[in-house]
Design goal:
It is built from 3 helices and no strands. The chain is mostly helical. Helix 1 (5-15) crosses helix 3 and helix 2 crosses helix 3. The termini are close together.
Length: 57
């Protein structure tokens, strides 16, 4: 089970997982052309998917 590209992109950018500084919901929303709220929702979905995956192991 893996995260789709959008979920991965948001987590990487929000938490600076690529060695860059972390980004705000606003900055990511402008880049992706979606609302800040949608970025927040997608972040929560991604974190929930990761939690579910780790609970299965």
């Amino acid at each position: 089970m893996g995260l789709d590209v959008r979920h991965r992109t948001i987590l990487i950018r929000r938490f600076g997982m690529d060695g860059q500084d972390w980004e705000t919901f606003s900055a990511i929303s402008k880049e992706l052309g979606i609302s800040r709220e949608r970025v927040r929702q997608l972040q929560e979905e991604a974190l929930d998917l990761l939690r579910q995956h780790t609970e299965l192991q």
